[in-house]
């Protein structure tokens, strides 16, 4: 059979079809009862009659990508974990308002479709969807020869969830006297990699294959550590205790994200001596001679989520966290203040 004009232009339709076949089993594992139909149609279907059990259902939506962490996956030729970073960025922006993630769609753009590689990426996405309890409803893989190099790819996605209107969490619930509880991150998660790559790989010229004693593993293994997906953890905490607001600590760091869920007239004081950031954060700061304000405004510093809640909810949240294998601690308090909401970090971190 002669080669098609599209194939000569660099687009392999048959490879795309093989990739779809390879990923079907991964997608099937994420199926929820509300999902109608299967993979391969022009649109995915989710049965909205499931909302009849809500008094006033409100849909929540979020979209995001992975950012330059994909460059680490490409360099290491390891693609089965990067999907957790995508789903973590998506569903955990929903759950902080109290919404249950329902379904996800993804988009992968690549220079060349390698079916096994695409299936590995989607396998990671599906695995993270299982952890989150969300269905992988559909997606798109686009081959862009000439725009991306053959082994380059980028990925993004969108998710939708639902929450009762009178149970939406946010600034209007926060009160002076509330406590801020932190949930530990699994590492860098998926933010600040432009800084991390510049400092460690470009400037310091460290190798991804190099074993770093303070990390206890290779630099590549550390940088590719998957983002923790907190969705079910957070939903369990909301069910077990009164929670007023939650901040997902992503790009911009702890203070810049926490202030987004605080009302005017309050100030949160967070104590650095309440936790010791994992070694990767000190490595980046020390190697790059990054100032404390800069590092805290870029990386999560070991805090993946910050919950704002009344003092009598702290023990219940801590129990849920412990039962689910999450480290939690009291990070600070919310006090009354004049003017716009603010967050300040005080003291110094302990050192291991």
Strand and helix layout:
Layout: H1 5-8, H2 13-28, E1 35-36, E2 45-46, E3 57-65, H3 70-76, H4 82-95, E4 100-110, H5 115-132, E5 135-143, E6 153-164, E7 179-184, H6 193-203, E8 211-212, E9 217-218, H7 219-223, H8 231-240, E10 245-248, H9 253-258, E11 266-271, H10 279-288, H11 292-296, E12 303-309, H12 314-323, E13 328-336, E14 342-346
Helix pairs in contact: 2-5, 4-5, 4-8, 8-12
What does the model show?
The protein is of the alpha+beta class and 352 residues long. It has 2 domains: 5-167, 60s Ribosomal Protein L30, Chain: A; 171-346, Phosphoribosyl-aminoimidazole Synthetase, Chain A, domain 2, CATH 3.90.650.10. The chain has 12 helices and 14 strands. It has helices at residues 5-8, 13-28, 70-76, 82-95, 115-132, 193-203, 219-223, 231-240, 253-258, 279-288, 292-296, 314-323; strands at 35-36, 45-46, 57-65, 100-110, 135-143, 153-164, 179-184, 211-212, 217-218, 245-248, 266-271, 303-309, 328-336, 342-346. The strands form 4 sheets. It has a 6-stranded mixed β-sheet with strand order 10-12-7-13-11-14. Strands 3-6-4-5 form a 4-stranded mixed β-sheet, covered by helices on one side. Strand 1 and strand 2 (45-46) form a beta hairpin. Helix 8 packs antiparallel against helix 12. It is globular, with a radius of gyration of 21 Å. The mean pLDDT is 92.
């Amino acid at each position: 059979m002669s080669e098609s004009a599209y194939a000569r232009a660099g687009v392999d339709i048959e490879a795309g079809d093989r990739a779809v076949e390879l990923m079907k089993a991964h997608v099937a594992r994420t199926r929820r009862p509300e999902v109608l139909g299967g993979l391969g149609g022009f649109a995915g279907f989710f049965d909205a009659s499931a909302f009849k059990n809500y008094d006033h259902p409100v849909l929540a939506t979020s979209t995001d990508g992975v950012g330059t962490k994909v460059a680490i996956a490409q360099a290491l030729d390891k693609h089965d974990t990067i999907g957790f970073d995508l789903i973590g960025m998506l569903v955990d922006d929903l759950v902080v308002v109290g919404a249950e993630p329902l379904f996800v769609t993804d988009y992968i753009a690549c220079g060349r479709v390698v079916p096994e590689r695409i299936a590995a990426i989607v396998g990671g996405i599906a695995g993270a969807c299982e952890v989150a309890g969300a269905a992988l409803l559909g997606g798109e893989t686009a081959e862009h020869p000439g725009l991306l190099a053959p082994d380059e790819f980028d990925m993004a996605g969108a998710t939708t969830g639902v929450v009762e209107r009178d149970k939406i969490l946010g600034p209007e619930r926060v009160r002076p006297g509330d406590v801020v509880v932190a949930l530990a991150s699994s590492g860098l998660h998926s933010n600040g990699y432009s800084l991390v790559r510049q400092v460690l790989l470009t400037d310091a010229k460290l190798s991804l294959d190099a074993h770093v004693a303070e990390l206890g593993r290779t630099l590549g293994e550390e940088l590719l550590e998957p983002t923790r997906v907190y969705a079910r953890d957070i939903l369990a905490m909301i069910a077990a205790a009164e929670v007023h607001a939650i901040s997902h600590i992503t790009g911009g760091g702890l203070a810049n994200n926490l202030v987004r869920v605080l009302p005017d007239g309050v100030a949160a004081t967070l104590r650095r001596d309440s936790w010791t950031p994992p070694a990767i954060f000190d490595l980046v700061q020390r190697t790059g001679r990054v100032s404390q304000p800069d590092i805290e405004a870029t990386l999560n510093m070991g805090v993946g989520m910050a919950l704002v809640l009344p003092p009598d909810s702290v023990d219940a949240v801590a129990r849920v966290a412990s039962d689910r294998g999450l480290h939690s601690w009291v990070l600070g308090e919310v006090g009354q203040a004049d003017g716009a909401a603010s967050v300040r970090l005080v003291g110094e971190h302990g050192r291991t």
